Amino acid sequence: MAPDFYTIDDFDLEGKTVLLRVDINSPVDPVTGLLLDDTRIRLHAETIEELAEKGAKTVLLAHQSRPGKNDFTTLQQHAETLSNLLDRPVGYVDDIFGSNARETINALKKGEILLLENVRFYSEEILQREPPQQAETHMVRQLSPLADIFINDAFAAAHRSQPSMVGFALKMPSAAGRVMERELKSLYSAVSNVKRPCVYVLGGVKVDDSIMVMENALKSGSADYILTTGLVANIFLWGGGVNIRNYNRKFIEDRDYCEYVKKAKKLCKKFNDQIMVPTDLAVCKDDKRLEYPVNKLPNLPIYDLGTETTTEYARIIRKSRTIFANGPAGVFEKEGFSQGTEDILNAISSSPGFSIIGGGHLAAAANKMGLTGISHISSGGGASINLIAGARLPAVEVLRESASRSKVKL
User: Fold this and answer.
1) What end-to-end distance do the CA atoms of the chain give, in Å?
2) Do the first three CATH levels of 8-182+392-405 and 196-352 match, i.e. the same topology?
3) Which partner for 60 in 115, 201, 203, 372 could form a disulfide, CB atoms 3.0-4.6 Å apart?
4) What CATH number is given for 196-352 in this structure?
5) Model confidence, pTM
6) 8-182+392-405, CATH topology level
7) What is the pLDDT of residues 265-300, one digit of tens each?
8) CA distances from 307 to 64, 88, 341 (A)
9) DSSP single-letter state for residue 282
């Protein structure tokens, strides 16, 4: 059952200053620095347009990547892209809560839109802490007095307990934006009606999210099978004693993921019959695809699942009545290595079961393939798969708490 949260419909927005948290984190060309895709910006445009039409003064809070990544950059291009999509001016300041940002917010007029700088330029935004602590950060203290309402539309980051995601909801009237509202209603409906067998397909490179989801799903008994793909599969193979070779071990070590190898080893021992790992993999040699059984891997980068593995995974998926999937099976964007991701997505699409695909790269691949048999493609991979697995979503909890503090329609 969906939580009791306010939506845009519960507020009179005319003339009000609204802090709107969106997730417009977008792919960036590593060479040119230009945005490669505006899917997420388009997704939130509906909420932003509605607020402008209702006469709100809209202040956008958003992030792009994280420190240390090559796509960690300013939001100037995002503002320009959003302005083109909305066909109305979108202001931008290279400031988050300093005097320039505060003065620009105070000068806004009805219907105007302002995008503040990448909130992850602010060091406290990266820290994961409990909501009451985040509500006392400088960002929240400086910006909350300038606004009347906080609206969170960033479902894709709802599993992050960061200041811009959870702090404002404890300080002011708050609601879900249209993207957040749709996602929560769809996903809570799915969770309340899980049919067995239920399979989780977990891959990609966000290993921390996948292993947390896996632990929750296995301990709660909601998963009959976990199919591992991508970097998640490599970690579980290593944890299970398979020699994935120096190149791939170093890839994991360089990302400080060794602790997850230990977790994988423990999970494999406890849930050995439910966690499936690849039996063969595709490696890259001179830009060509070569497949090997996992016990005969050469010291080359693993880029995809092997054919034997995808055939077995597809068989399990097609027999399942509920399918939750997150993360691609490999480096699907590289020619010759999309087979695993495509085979799994085709199996999900052709399955008679109810299926949910997490956001990010897997959703992009499904959209590119034009698949029509997937029940719901979420805008947020980590958030959706966490919700489904029964993990708490801090951003949703504070919206619910905000609504409970005020039982009257605002």
Assistant:
1) 24
2) yes
3) 115
4) 3.40.50.1260
5) 0.82
6) Rossmann fold (3.40.50)
7) 999 999 999 999 999 999 999 999 999 999 999 999
8) 36, 49, 11
9) E
